[in-house]
Task: structure prediction
Amino acid sequence: MFKALYFDLDNTLIHRQRSIERYAEVFVEHFASSLNSTSATSIAQIIKGVDNGGYLVANSGYSSIKQAVTDKLHRQFHREIRVEKSALLAHWLKYFPSCSVVMAGANQLLTQLDQQKMHIGIISNGAQASRLATARALQGYHCVDQLLSSGEAGIKKPDPQIFQRAMTAAGLTAQQCCYVGDHPLNDIQGARSAGMTAIWLKGFHPWPAGLEEPEYSIASLDEIASIIFPAKCTECAVN
Result:
């Protein structure tokens, strides 16, 4: 029986692409008078193109997602009414977390795990402030016992040390812990290297050829109960 369930954040508890779509609407609303195009759909496509599911594309030339997004959005303004990049960066940092769209079933799952007295944690790459602001979009965030970001730890997934640090802080062993994430390398391989059981949430990143297949793979968070509580998943269901 597992005692703890850890999660990735983007594209696991939070749907990042839908969050971008919501942010694009806010962006257009705030800057409409200065933009070449006021189509929220086109703005969202621009952001998604550089965001790449929260991972910089290879050889992007940028050091961070926020830098890439800021630069691309800066080009969407009329030349004579161009907003400073620093203002666009501040806008992204302020509004993108509050535009977070919760993954289907996430709040219900957190409530279910809390009712079963499971330790609930989040391990996510990114700055601590942005990870906290994003996680707080979850109605079930009050059920979360622990959040460790790479910014706070000084270690990034897939380094197994960030997973081990989270477990040690909670007084847990790897055999007691399960980790859920969407990225085959950063999440699944990283968690497995730390000795955790890993559950791959499919649909966001393809599984790399040559990488050992995951022990568990799911298409939605609703499938987790039958893995975590195999003998009593029916009685654990939340109505």
